[in-house]
Amino acid sequence: MSWLTELEARLTAIHAENRFRRRLVVDGPAAAEVTVGGQRLLSFCSNDYLGLANHPRVTAAFKGGCDEFGVGAGASHLITGHTRAHDALEVELAEFVGAPRALLFSTGYMANLAVASALLDRHDLVVEDRLNHASLIDAGLLTRARLRRYPHGDTAAASRLLTGRCGRGLIMTDGVFSMDGDVAPVAALASVCRRQDAALVVDDAHGFGVLGDTGAGTLEHAAQPIRWPVVMMGTLGKALGTFGAFIAADAVVIETLIQRARTYIYTTAPPPAIAAATHAALKVLKDEPGRRQKVLEHVNRFRTGARQLDLPLFDSVTPIQPILVGDSGAAVSLSRALRERGFLIPAIRPPTVPAGSARLRVTFSAAHDAGHVDRLLDALASVHAPVAGAGGGG
Ligand SMILES: *Cc1c(COP(=O)(O)O)cnc(C)c1O
What we know:
This protein is α/β, with parallel strands linked by helices.
């Protein structure tokens, strides 16, 4: 078979499994309502949890950043790409999450690759939750260390995997699991690491900006200081509404990343205007704590209503509120029926989630109001969404 025929056959197979993915073309900014192909849709799928992606203070800071620094950084951080705006943001992020230092990355994906490969060598061991985000799995695979996975949330299993190893050990976990919305047992994992002389990396893409008393994330929520052996990865493209990521950790970890991490060294620094916009987003986050309160109120309102409809929810207190469907085809049909009613809610299917656990992934934002949540509940009632306990594990 020629290459192209073979690739086409694979695409056909993806189709047959109801796993074919299509991109939407969206007009206009991230918001509660978006325009897709001329149709206005109420969106429950963005990660813009605090509604900052199009906040006037954030967009103004972005424009101001362009006026001061231009668009491109022009070089990597280690050459001339590390501007005053990047440097100031690193200091602010470290202070905000209560870590000794922070280091900016272009994306969360790259930050995860960086931390695993900078901390581990060939004879070491990386241990990961089975439901970790793809970027953490890839980070584990990219190191030449051995990768082992433990059942979701099972700290005892994580501890057993670390026992008797030779070399260093590292546990990597999502703080908030991106497809389930539940919070990792980070306090228990941190104490396993302390006992086992291992390190813990918490990927807080979905907790940073939302959880904890000040919004510093899952580690604040669990009262875990960011000190060795605990390392945090936070992303800026979700709750902060901008782009990029950071690692927060002890100075020696940050310095190790600067010296060793290939996804830090061999890439162009993110645009300085992004750093300026993120600085403004962080200020809005601190100035307007009502935004975090609002999104969590939506979560409560939704869960109360969804329980009355007997919808199979996940054990989640976060803005990620999936509804279990089970069968991929059924999840796609429900997503389509909701779309026809003016709601944008994606069907998440394997291989993103385990086989037989396709789901509608609903996310809430401070950009929504209570009326949006009620309209969603009405729509879910009208499409005959799955009912708890009715099976669906197909
Ligand atoms: C989104 C996400 C990432 C990747 O972050 P980007 O900055 O978008 O590359 C990493 N981990 C988790 C858990 C995520 O949800």
